[in-house]
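Quick one, C-alpha cells below. Sequence please?
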C-alpha cells in the first residue's frame, strides 16, 4: 500500500498536543494548575473573591496561551518551505513494515518497532517512541484504502499496542 500527502498544521498540532500532555512539561503544567486551584479553594476566605477570580482567569488564560502557542508553532512548521514538515511524504506499507521518504530524508520501521497506535482528531499516530510517530490523517485515505490501512495494523501490530483501533 502506498500513500502520499502533505501534513497540515492542524494535524501536526493534534500530534503535538497529544504529546505535550504526556510529557514532563505537560504534567508540570497540570500539577501547577491543580496546585493553584487548590490554593484558591483553601484560601478563598483570606484572599477575597475578586483576587480568586482573577487568579483563576490567569490560570485558564495561561493554559489557552500554551495551546495557542503549540497551534501557531505547528502552522509555522508546515508553512516554512525550509522545514521538512512542509514537504510531501511518501509512505509504503507492506509486510516488512513502513518506509517513508520526505524530501531528501528517508526512513523505515519494521512493524515490531511500532510502540503504540493512537487515533485522535482524525489522525492515526504510529509511535516509534514517546515523541516520534508516523502520522496518517484519515483524509488521505480514498475509498477502501482506510480499511486496507486498518487491516495492515490489525495484521502486523499486536492488539495491545493498538487499543481502540478497529477495522
Amino acid at each position: 500500500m502506498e500513500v502520499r500527502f502533505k501534513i497540515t498544521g492542524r494535524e501536526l498540532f493534534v500530534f503535538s498536543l497529544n504529546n505535550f500532555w504526556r510529557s514532563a512539561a505537560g504534567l508540570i503544567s497540570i500539577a501547577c494548575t491543580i496546585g493553584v486551584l487548590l490554593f484558591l479553594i483553601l484560601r478563598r476566605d483570606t484572599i477575597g473573591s475578586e483576587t480568586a477570580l482573577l487568579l483563576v482567569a490567569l490560570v485558564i488564560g495561561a493554559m489557552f496561551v500554551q495551546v495557542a502557542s503549540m497551534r501557531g508553532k505547528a502552522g509555522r512548521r508546515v508553512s516554512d518551505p525550509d522545514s521538512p514538515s512542509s514537504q510531501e511524504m511518501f509512505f509504503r506499507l507492506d509486510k516488512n513494515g513502513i518506509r517513508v521518504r520526505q524530501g531528501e530524508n528517508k526512513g523505515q520501521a519494521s512493524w515490531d518497532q511500532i510502540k503504540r497506535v493512537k487515533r485522535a482528531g482524525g489522525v492515526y499516530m504510529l509511535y516509534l517512541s514517546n515523541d516520534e510517530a508516523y502520522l496518517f490523517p484519515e483524509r488521505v485515505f480514498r475509498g477502501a484504502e482506510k480499511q486496507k490501512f486498518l487491516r495492515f495494523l490489525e495484521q502486523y501490530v499486536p492488539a495491545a499496542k493498538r487499543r481502540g483501533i478497529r477495522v
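Residues 91 and 142 are 15 Å apart (CA to CA). The helical segments are 9-22, 24-47, 49-79, 145-156.
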